[in-house]
Protein backbone atom coordinates (compact mmCIF):
# COMPACT_ATOMS: atom_id res chain seq x y z
CA UNK A 1 0.00 0.00 0.00
CA UNK A 2 2.59 2.55 -1.16
CA UNK A 3 5.00 1.27 1.47
CA UNK A 4 2.53 1.16 4.38
CA UNK A 5 2.26 -2.33 5.79
CA UNK A 6 -1.13 -3.71 6.84
CA UNK A 7 -0.01 -3.61 10.47
CA UNK A 8 0.98 0.06 10.16
CA UNK A 9 -2.31 0.90 8.52
CA UNK A 10 -4.20 -0.85 11.29
CA UNK A 11 -2.37 1.17 13.95
CA UNK A 12 -3.19 4.39 12.06
CA UNK A 13 -6.88 3.50 11.92
CA UNK A 14 -6.89 2.56 15.60
CA UNK A 15 -5.21 5.85 16.54
CA UNK A 16 -7.77 7.87 14.56
CA UNK A 17 -10.65 5.97 16.15
CA UNK A 18 -9.25 6.20 19.67
CA UNK A 19 -8.63 9.95 19.35
CA UNK A 20 -12.17 10.76 18.29
CA UNK A 21 -11.66 11.19 14.55
CA UNK A 22 -14.61 10.22 12.37
CA UNK A 23 -14.16 9.03 8.79
CA UNK A 24 -16.60 10.51 6.27
CA UNK A 25 -17.01 9.80 2.54
CA UNK A 26 -14.99 12.07 0.28
CA UNK A 27 -18.20 13.16 -1.44
CA UNK A 28 -19.49 14.49 1.88
CA UNK A 29 -16.23 16.40 2.40
CA UNK A 30 -16.63 17.95 -1.06
CA UNK A 31 -20.21 18.96 -0.27
CA UNK A 32 -19.04 20.58 2.96
CA UNK A 33 -16.29 22.55 1.18
CA UNK A 34 -18.85 23.71 -1.37
CA UNK A 35 -21.19 24.91 1.38
CA UNK A 36 -23.64 22.03 1.24
CA UNK A 37 -24.14 20.33 4.58
CA UNK A 38 -22.03 19.91 7.70
CA UNK A 39 -19.51 17.41 9.07
CA UNK A 40 -18.41 16.28 12.55
CA UNK A 41 -15.87 18.47 14.31
CA UNK A 42 -13.05 15.93 13.95
CA UNK A 43 -13.81 14.54 10.50
CA UNK A 44 -11.45 13.13 7.90
CA UNK A 45 -11.74 11.40 4.52
CA UNK A 46 -9.46 8.56 3.42
CA UNK A 47 -7.96 8.54 -0.08
CA UNK A 48 -5.67 6.02 -1.77
CA UNK A 49 -3.47 6.92 -4.74
CA UNK A 50 -3.53 4.90 -7.97
CA UNK A 51 -5.89 2.04 -6.99
CA UNK A 52 -3.06 -0.45 -6.56
CA UNK A 53 -3.93 -4.13 -6.24
CA UNK A 54 -2.43 -3.91 -2.72
CA UNK A 55 -5.38 -1.69 -1.82
CA UNK A 56 -7.74 -4.50 -2.77
CA UNK A 57 -5.67 -7.19 -1.05
CA UNK A 58 -4.86 -5.43 2.23
CA UNK A 59 -6.57 -2.04 2.62
CA UNK A 60 -10.15 -2.92 1.64
CA UNK A 61 -10.42 -5.78 4.20
CA UNK A 62 -9.22 -3.45 6.98
CA UNK A 63 -11.69 -0.79 5.89
CA UNK A 64 -14.48 -3.38 6.12
CA UNK A 65 -13.29 -4.45 9.56
CA UNK A 66 -13.33 -0.84 10.83
CA UNK A 67 -16.55 0.05 8.98
CA UNK A 68 -14.91 2.85 6.99
CA UNK A 69 -15.42 4.20 3.47
CA UNK A 70 -12.59 5.54 1.30
CA UNK A 71 -11.90 6.96 -2.17
CA UNK A 72 -9.47 5.40 -4.65
CA UNK A 73 -7.71 7.41 -7.35
CA UNK A 74 -7.67 5.65 -10.73
CA UNK A 75 -5.38 6.21 -13.72
CA UNK A 76 -7.82 5.00 -16.34
CA UNK A 77 -5.28 4.02 -19.02
CA UNK A 78 -4.52 1.05 -16.77
CA UNK A 79 -8.10 -0.13 -16.35
CA UNK A 80 -8.31 -3.74 -17.41
CA UNK A 81 -10.62 -6.73 -17.20
CA UNK A 82 -10.06 -9.88 -15.21
CA UNK A 83 -11.33 -12.05 -12.40
CA UNK A 84 -11.69 -10.94 -8.81
CA UNK A 85 -8.39 -11.74 -7.13
CA UNK A 86 -8.09 -12.97 -3.54
CA UNK A 87 -7.53 -10.65 -0.62
CA UNK A 88 -6.09 -11.08 2.86
CA UNK A 89 -9.36 -12.57 4.13
CA UNK A 90 -9.57 -15.28 1.43
CA UNK A 91 -9.08 -18.69 3.11
CA UNK A 92 -5.97 -20.50 1.92
CA UNK A 93 -5.02 -17.80 -0.61
CA UNK A 94 -1.34 -17.51 -1.54
CA UNK A 95 -0.88 -13.77 -1.98
CA UNK A 96 2.84 -13.94 -2.67
CA UNK A 97 2.38 -14.28 -6.42
CA UNK A 98 0.32 -11.09 -6.70
CA UNK A 99 2.09 -7.91 -7.88
CA UNK A 100 2.66 -5.31 -5.18
CA UNK A 101 2.34 -1.53 -5.41
CA UNK A 102 6.08 -0.98 -5.67
CA UNK A 103 6.11 -2.94 -8.94
CA UNK A 104 2.82 -1.68 -10.41
CA UNK A 105 4.17 1.32 -12.31
CA UNK A 106 7.25 -0.42 -13.78
CA UNK A 107 5.08 -3.31 -14.91
CA UNK A 108 2.55 -0.99 -16.53
CA UNK A 109 4.96 1.41 -18.23
CA UNK A 110 7.78 -0.96 -19.18
CA UNK A 111 5.87 -4.20 -19.88
CA UNK A 112 2.36 -2.97 -20.67
CA UNK A 113 1.12 -5.09 -17.78
CA UNK A 114 -1.51 -3.31 -15.63
CA UNK A 115 -2.03 -6.23 -13.24
CA UNK A 116 -0.52 -4.27 -10.34
CA UNK A 117 -3.66 -2.10 -10.36
CA UNK A 118 -7.21 -3.11 -9.52
CA UNK A 119 -9.27 -4.33 -12.47
CA UNK A 120 -12.78 -3.23 -13.41
CA UNK A 121 -14.41 -6.16 -11.62
CA UNK A 122 -12.64 -5.35 -8.36
CA UNK A 123 -13.42 -1.65 -8.67
CA UNK A 124 -17.11 -2.41 -9.21
CA UNK A 125 -17.17 -4.53 -6.06
CA UNK A 126 -15.49 -1.72 -4.13
CA UNK A 127 -18.06 0.82 -5.25
CA UNK A 128 -21.27 -1.19 -5.63
CA UNK A 129 -20.94 -3.66 -2.76
CA UNK A 130 -18.59 -1.94 -0.31
CA UNK A 131 -19.63 1.69 -0.77
CA UNK A 132 -16.26 3.20 -1.65
CA UNK A 133 -15.71 5.98 -4.20
CA UNK A 134 -13.47 6.45 -7.24
CA UNK A 135 -11.45 9.58 -7.97
CA UNK A 136 -10.11 10.59 -11.38
CA UNK A 137 -6.34 10.32 -11.60
CA UNK A 138 -6.29 11.56 -15.23
CA UNK A 139 -6.11 9.06 -18.08
CA UNK A 140 -2.35 8.51 -18.36
CA UNK A 141 -0.84 10.50 -15.44
CA UNK A 142 1.58 11.98 -17.93
CA UNK A 143 4.77 13.71 -16.86
CA UNK A 144 6.81 16.15 -18.92
CA UNK A 145 10.20 17.79 -18.90
CA UNK A 146 9.89 21.25 -17.34
CA UNK A 147 13.26 22.47 -18.58
CA UNK A 148 15.50 21.81 -21.56
CA UNK A 149 18.60 21.91 -19.34
CA UNK A 150 19.85 18.48 -18.32
CA UNK A 151 20.05 17.71 -14.61
CA UNK A 152 20.65 14.79 -12.29
CA UNK A 153 17.79 12.46 -11.49
CA UNK A 154 16.35 13.08 -8.04
CA UNK A 155 16.28 10.16 -5.65
CA UNK A 156 12.74 9.36 -4.48
CA UNK A 157 11.19 6.53 -2.52
CA UNK A 158 8.02 6.39 -4.60
CA UNK A 159 7.00 6.78 -8.23
CA UNK A 160 7.26 10.42 -9.23
CA UNK A 161 6.97 12.35 -12.47
CA UNK A 162 10.60 11.70 -13.32
CA UNK A 163 9.97 7.95 -13.26
CA UNK A 164 7.15 8.28 -15.77
CA UNK A 165 8.92 10.76 -18.04
CA UNK A 166 12.14 8.76 -18.11
CA UNK A 167 10.55 5.35 -18.66
CA UNK A 168 12.41 3.63 -21.47
CA UNK A 169 15.28 6.11 -21.57
CA UNK A 170 18.73 4.86 -22.50
CA UNK A 171 21.30 4.75 -19.72
CA UNK A 172 23.40 7.47 -21.35
CA UNK A 173 20.43 9.74 -22.16
CA UNK A 174 20.44 13.20 -20.59
CA UNK A 175 18.13 13.66 -17.63
CA UNK A 176 15.87 16.69 -17.41
CA UNK A 177 13.87 18.10 -14.49
CA UNK A 178 10.32 16.82 -14.66
CA UNK A 179 6.84 17.65 -13.49
CA UNK A 180 3.19 17.16 -14.27
CA UNK A 181 2.25 17.54 -17.93
CA UNK A 182 -1.09 18.98 -16.78
CA UNK A 183 0.51 21.84 -14.81
CA UNK A 184 3.40 22.76 -17.13
CA UNK A 185 3.52 23.46 -20.85
CA UNK A 186 6.70 21.40 -20.72
CA UNK A 187 9.35 20.31 -23.18
CA UNK A 188 9.09 17.30 -25.48
CA UNK A 189 11.33 15.46 -27.92
CA UNK A 190 11.05 16.80 -31.46
CA UNK A 191 10.02 14.32 -34.14
CA UNK A 192 8.87 10.75 -33.75
CA UNK A 193 11.85 9.42 -31.81
CA UNK A 194 11.49 9.54 -28.05
CA UNK A 195 15.15 10.23 -27.28
CA UNK A 196 18.15 11.78 -28.97
CA UNK A 197 16.51 14.87 -30.51
CA UNK A 198 16.24 18.45 -29.22
CA UNK A 199 13.50 19.33 -26.77
CA UNK A 200 10.72 21.60 -28.00
CA UNK A 201 8.45 23.62 -25.72
CA UNK A 202 4.76 22.77 -25.98
CA UNK A 203 2.30 25.59 -26.57
CA UNK A 204 -0.23 26.41 -23.87
CA UNK A 205 -3.01 25.82 -26.39
CA UNK A 206 -1.72 22.29 -26.87
CA UNK A 207 -1.73 21.71 -23.12
CA UNK A 208 -5.32 22.96 -22.90
CA UNK A 209 -6.41 20.38 -25.48
CA UNK A 210 -4.37 17.67 -23.75
CA UNK A 211 -5.80 18.41 -20.29
CA UNK A 212 -9.39 18.51 -21.47
CA UNK A 213 -9.02 15.27 -23.44
CA UNK A 214 -7.34 13.48 -20.52
CA UNK A 215 -9.79 14.72 -17.90
CA UNK A 216 -12.86 13.91 -20.00
CA UNK A 217 -11.64 10.44 -20.95
CA UNK A 218 -10.81 9.63 -17.33
CA UNK A 219 -14.20 10.84 -16.15
CA UNK A 220 -16.09 8.89 -18.81
CA UNK A 221 -14.27 5.65 -18.05
CA UNK A 222 -14.88 5.90 -14.33
CA UNK A 223 -18.56 6.60 -14.90
CA UNK A 224 -18.77 3.46 -17.02
CA UNK A 225 -17.70 1.50 -13.94
CA UNK A 226 -19.78 3.22 -11.29
CA UNK A 227 -22.81 4.39 -13.26
CA UNK A 228 -22.57 7.61 -11.23
CA UNK A 229 -21.17 11.08 -12.02
CA UNK A 230 -17.44 11.31 -11.34
CA UNK A 231 -17.16 14.44 -9.21
CA UNK A 232 -13.55 14.59 -8.01
CA UNK A 233 -10.08 14.28 -9.50
CA UNK A 234 -6.61 14.29 -7.94
CA UNK A 235 -3.75 16.39 -9.29
CA UNK A 236 -0.84 14.13 -10.34
CA UNK A 237 2.00 14.74 -7.88
CA UNK A 238 -0.08 17.55 -6.39
CA UNK A 239 0.79 20.01 -9.18
CA UNK A 240 -1.77 22.31 -10.78
CA UNK A 241 -2.17 25.79 -12.22
CA UNK A 242 -5.01 27.97 -13.47
CA UNK A 243 -5.09 26.29 -16.88
CA UNK A 244 -5.43 22.84 -15.32
CA UNK A 245 -8.12 24.03 -12.92
CA UNK A 246 -10.16 25.61 -15.71
CA UNK A 247 -9.97 22.41 -17.76
CA UNK A 248 -10.96 20.28 -14.76
CA UNK A 249 -14.05 22.42 -14.26
CA UNK A 250 -14.84 22.31 -17.99
CA UNK A 251 -14.52 18.51 -17.93
CA UNK A 252 -17.22 18.39 -15.24
CA UNK A 253 -15.24 17.85 -12.05
CA UNK A 254 -16.52 19.70 -9.01
CA UNK A 255 -13.33 19.49 -6.97
CA UNK A 256 -9.72 18.32 -7.05
CA UNK A 257 -7.30 16.99 -4.46
CA UNK A 258 -3.92 18.60 -3.91
CA UNK A 259 -1.13 17.85 -1.44
CA UNK A 260 -1.41 21.27 0.14
CA UNK A 261 -1.69 20.88 3.90
CA UNK A 262 -4.42 22.56 5.88
CA UNK A 263 -8.04 22.20 7.05
CA UNK A 264 -10.81 21.79 4.50
CA UNK A 265 -13.85 23.99 5.15
CA UNK A 266 -16.18 26.27 3.16
CA UNK A 267 -13.29 28.72 2.67
CA UNK A 268 -11.19 26.06 0.92
CA UNK A 269 -10.86 26.35 -2.85
CA UNK A 270 -12.64 23.24 -4.20
CA UNK A 271 -9.95 22.56 -6.81
CA UNK A 272 -7.19 22.69 -4.18
CA UNK A 273 -8.54 20.48 -1.40
CA UNK A 274 -5.88 19.74 1.21
CA UNK A 275 -4.49 16.35 2.15
CA UNK A 276 -1.73 14.85 4.24
CA UNK A 277 0.41 12.00 2.97
CA UNK A 278 1.33 8.93 5.01
CA UNK A 279 3.92 6.45 3.82
CA UNK A 280 5.64 3.40 5.21
CA UNK A 281 7.62 3.65 8.42
CA UNK A 282 5.69 6.62 9.81
CA UNK A 283 4.44 6.15 13.35
CA UNK A 284 1.11 7.07 14.89
CA UNK A 285 2.97 9.87 16.66
CA UNK A 286 3.84 11.30 13.24
CA UNK A 287 0.25 10.79 12.11
CA UNK A 288 -0.93 12.75 15.14
CA UNK A 289 1.53 15.56 14.44
CA UNK A 290 0.40 15.83 10.83
CA UNK A 291 -3.27 15.77 11.77
CA UNK A 292 -2.71 18.58 14.28
CA UNK A 293 -0.79 20.61 11.70
CA UNK A 294 -3.39 20.04 9.01
CA UNK A 295 -6.23 20.97 11.38
CA UNK A 296 -4.73 24.37 12.15
CA UNK A 297 -4.63 27.16 9.55
CA UNK A 298 -1.76 28.82 11.46
CA UNK A 299 0.36 25.66 11.73
CA UNK A 300 -0.36 24.80 8.09
CA UNK A 301 0.93 28.19 6.96
CA UNK A 302 4.06 27.73 9.08
CA UNK A 303 4.60 24.28 7.56
CA UNK A 304 4.38 25.64 4.02
CA UNK A 305 6.85 28.43 4.82
CA UNK A 306 9.28 26.00 6.44
CA UNK A 307 9.22 23.49 3.60
CA UNK A 308 8.90 25.96 0.78
CA UNK A 309 6.11 23.85 -0.75
CA UNK A 310 3.28 25.78 -2.40
CA UNK A 311 0.85 24.85 -5.18
CA UNK A 312 1.68 26.29 -8.56
CA UNK A 313 -1.31 28.57 -8.29
CA UNK A 314 -3.73 29.46 -5.54
CA UNK A 315 -7.12 29.34 -7.21
| CATH C-level name | Alpha Beta
Separation of the first and last Cα atoms = 31 Å
The total tally of domains equals: 1
Helices and strands, in N-to-C order? HEHEEHEHHEEHEEEHEHEHH
Radius of gyration: 19 Å
Spatial order of the strands forming the largest sheet: 3-4-5
Count helical runs. Answer: 10
The CATH architecture can be named as Alpha-Beta Barrel
Query: Major beta sheet, specifics?
Result: 3 strands, parallel
Helix content: 25-40%
Topology-level CATH name = TIM Barrel
- Low-pLDDT stretches are 154-159, 306-315
Structure notes:
It is a single chain. With 315 residues, the chain is α/β, with parallel strands linked by helices. The protein has a single domain (6-142, 205-307), classed as TIM Barrel (Alpha-Beta Barrel). Helix content is 37%, strand content 11%. The chain contains 10 helices and 11 strands. The chain has helices at residues 6-18, 26-33, 53-66, 101-111, 120-129, 161-165, 204-226, 242-250, 284-295, 297-307; strands spanning 22-23, 43-44, 46-48, 70-74, 133-136, 143-145, 178-180, 187-189, 199-201, 232-234, 255-257. The strands form 5 sheets. Strands 3-4-5 form a 3-stranded parallel β-sheet. A two-stranded parallel ribbon has the order 1-2. A two-stranded antiparallel sheet has the order 6-7. Helix 3 links the parallel strand 3 and strand 4. The radius of gyration is 19 Å and the shape is globular. The relative contact order is 0.13.
Amino acid sequence: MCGISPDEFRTHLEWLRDHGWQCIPLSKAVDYVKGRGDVPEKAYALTFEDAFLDHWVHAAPLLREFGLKAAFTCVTAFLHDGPCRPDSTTPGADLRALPISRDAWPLATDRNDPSGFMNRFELRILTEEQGHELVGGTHTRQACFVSDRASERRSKSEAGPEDVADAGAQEDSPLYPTGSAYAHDGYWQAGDEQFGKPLVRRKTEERIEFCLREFLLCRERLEEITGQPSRVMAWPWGEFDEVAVEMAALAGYEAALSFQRGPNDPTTRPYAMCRIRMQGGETVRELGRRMRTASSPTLSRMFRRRTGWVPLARV
